[in-house]
Amino acid sequence: MTGAKVTTESGPAREAPEPPRPRLSVIVPLYNEQESIRPLYAAIVQALGDIGCTFEMVFVDDGSRDDTAEIARQIARFDSRLRLVKFRRNYGQTPAMAAGIEHARGEILVTMDGDLQNDPADIKHLLEQIEAGYDIVVGWRHNRQDKLVTRKIPSRIANVLIGRVTGVPIRDNGCSLKAFRAELIKSIPLYSEMHRFIPAMASIAGPRVAQIRVRHHARRYGQSKYGLSRIYKVLLDLMVIKTVTTFASRPLRWFALLSVPLFLVSFGMLAHTFITLITDRAQLSLPLAGTGIIFLASGTILLCSGALAELIYSRGDIRDNEFFRLTQTIQRHGGGISKAQPTQPVTTLS
């Protein structure tokens, strides 16, 4: 495809050439951030203007109920560097981030929150480490401006747990301010709350990961969309990550490992039943025999599931993320607006 259909305010649709690929894409998921979006846009433009590289901004409206999308649309009408991706309803931060990554065209992708707590001025330092040869650069929030009991303490516990389970010792997994090489991040499937586990998921490919200290500001407008309710989702996702990173290439081993105890217990029960049947039928326990059969069936099902997973894996990469639906992608091209359907060790730096 050589061009995009563009509808101008003064005439019908016409063909417009695709703009050149920018060096940097800044991806910002937004949900009910109408007060923040204008100062955020201004801060990003100022920070990236000082860097001097070509860039674009990809704002993802995650089904906001306020005027977030309309304000972003107004900005996109006069600044072609801003692209707006709009969801029909609220899907959550990870799907919003995944949509932004999918639509970003830059060689380097930077993700950040839209509530003004991340400082766009820190993007420069992330880029410096990418230029130094790292594939992923993770920010960790110095002097974090959040509530101690509901945010900071659970976050610290989660970071230690995630590091122990995944073997990737990230100091602040919940910090959205990160930089990635596009070819790496675009190959990682994101769903549920997986955005915080990107370094762990990417560890399979052996990237060079650095983490640097970044600023964190108090929230100016509205209230945080996150609370203690997200903890159980993180724990479930952590189990998935452990499975993926440890047994991804050989799922049969994982299922076989789970089925072995079931087979051992079932064989013991059935052997006892068989011996009793021969020696002393009066002591025969039908419930014990039934339980042994259930354990045997469960182990067989697990083993067959592992074989099926092995077959699916061997047939290719299954990563069609159709879990979100977009209404439109909005970007200014020349004289008008286009609306396109969506298509190992960590180095800590001071």
UniProtKB/TrEMBL annotation:
| A GO MF label | glycosyltransferase activity
Return the protein name: Dolichol-phosphate mannosyltransferase
| Chain ranges passing through the membrane | 254-278, 284-309
Q: Is the keyword Metal-binding in the record?
A: no
Short name of one Pfam family for this protein?
Answer: Glycos_transf_2
Q: Which GO terms describe its cellular component?
A: plasma membrane
Gene that this sequence comes from: dmt
Q: Which superkingdom, per the lineage?
A: Bacteria
